[in-house]
Fold Phytanoyl-CoA dioxygenase.
Amino acid sequence: MSGCTDFDTRVKDFPELGFLVLPGFLPASLVDRLVPEVDRWVDTGLRQLSIDACSLAEDAAPPKFELQMAAHGDLAVYAPLLELLRDENLLGPSFVFHHLHSDRRPPGGAGKSWHHDYEQHPQQDRALPMIHALHYLGGLRPGMGSLAVLPGSHHQIAEKDERSALGTDWQPGEETIDDLPRGSTVLLHSAIFHTRRAARGPVEAAPRYMVDASYCTTGAPWPPVKPYWRSVLAVGRTLEPARAQWPELFAERHFSPYVPRTQRPSA
Ligand SMILES: O=C(O)CCC(=O)C(=O)O
């Protein structure tokens, strides 16, 4: 494989393994702007209001979306990320933004059982990739709570919670990711099974910041997850460089009608 860097190889392996770790992917200047925005998002209750609005009607919306915060908007359309996603081994040339969540978890916070996040109701194929970009603003260390993934598990057609009985237990073949510098990103095929473990060893004093943004290859209608999804996309369409260079990135036509969580069919 002469001329192929380690990075190229890892990108080529993405379709098979379903994850790609990008240590220090985000510039410090962007991370420095994101952290206070996440603090404000959590401390003022805006995050909770955005969650509460998920149980309201489609014409209701929370007072603010993450994309309306300047650094979060910049993150959603961060050019090196979009350029990487357009690689044929990831999403390919045409993809659409799906959603972005921003959170700060307290030191020593709880884990989250094995699950995946591929949006399809019911789960029936893996014809088109969806990718979650997990941005760890403060990095990841065992004392913050690690991420573990099951490489290759995105090929299995399974409901999101099919492995939840495993809790956050160690699984054969898993990869644990717990040593990342500030501003690191992990790309996951959204159907890969993964878990967040509670902190191990001495718990870090600092909170755990994670912003996750997801994107889908176009070609079939994707189910929206929030009733106010159209308003979020409308904000996205105002962002530069989305307007000029990525005309499909916030286009409504790549989505199916919104179905509330309680009415979504499962297998
Ligand atoms: O917090 C993490 O590291 C992973 C979060 C996660 O699995 C999720 O939000 O679906």
In short: The longest strand covers residues 95-105. Residues 112, 117, 134, 147, 194, 196, 210, 212 surround 2-oxoglutaric acid (CB under 6 Å). Residues 15-261 form a domain with the Jelly Rolls fold (CATH 2.60.120.620). Residues 114 and 195 are 4 Å apart (CA to CA).
